[in-house]
Amino acid sequence: MAKVLKVAELGNPVLRSPAHPITNIADPSIQKLIDNLLKTVNKTNGVGIAAPQVFESWQLFIVASRPNLRYLHAPTMEPTPMINPEILSRSDELVEGWEGCLSVPGMRGLVKRSREIEVRYCDRFGQPHQKIFTDFVARIIQHEYDHISGKVFLDRVENTLNLMSEAEYHTRIVCA
């Protein structure tokens, strides 16, 4: 049975180390990790979560966009595990958006991301996929891809004036 995992927070070295590729997707420990990540992202009101965020240094993340308490206007999609993902291309068009992170609790930051990306990845059954993603879902993927690369969204905030508390964000941005 899947369980909610503890989330590593900013300062933990696992968040600053590039993750390792997964060579055996069918390994029961990887399949269990996928199930646990799916449960964790759901219970924590995330829209994505990467394996390094739960102290597992693997190139694996879940994209699970849906409206919730942290992202009221998120589009709904089927939760998607992405294993050994590669971003093949990024649009030149950059879009600013407010990001939060389960590993950086209580903070939001304004981050520029490519509006459109093309991604190649394997699903939990080892099947390869290559797709184009846009807008909010593209932002989630880029955010989670940073996690498997040893980065957090704060590394992409251009100015400290573009940071605010989660509470202030919900007062000023969401309710505006």
Automatic annotation (TrEMBL):
Residues forming the catalytic site: 144
Cofactor: Fe(2+)
Taxonomy, superkingdom: Bacteria
Cofactor remark: Binds 1 Fe(2+) ion.
Known EC number: 3.5.1.88
GO molecular function terms attached to this record: metal ion binding; peptide deformylase activity
GO BP terms: translation
Keywords, comma-separated and alphabetical: Hydrolase, Iron, Metal-binding, Protein biosynthesis
Binding annotation for Fe cation: 101, 143, 147
CDD domains for this protein: Pep_deformylase (cd00487)
Substrates-to-products reaction catalysed: N-terminal N-formyl-L-methionyl-[peptide] + H2O = N-terminal L-methionyl-[peptide] + formate
PANTHER family documented for this protein: PEPTIDE DEFORMYLASE
Its job: Removes the formyl group from the N-terminal Met of newly synthesized proteins. Requires at least a dipeptide for an efficient rate of reaction. N-terminal L-methionine is a prerequisite for activity but the enzyme has broad specificity at other positions.
Family: Belongs to the polypeptide deformylase family.
Protein name listed in UniProt: Peptide deformylase
Gene: def
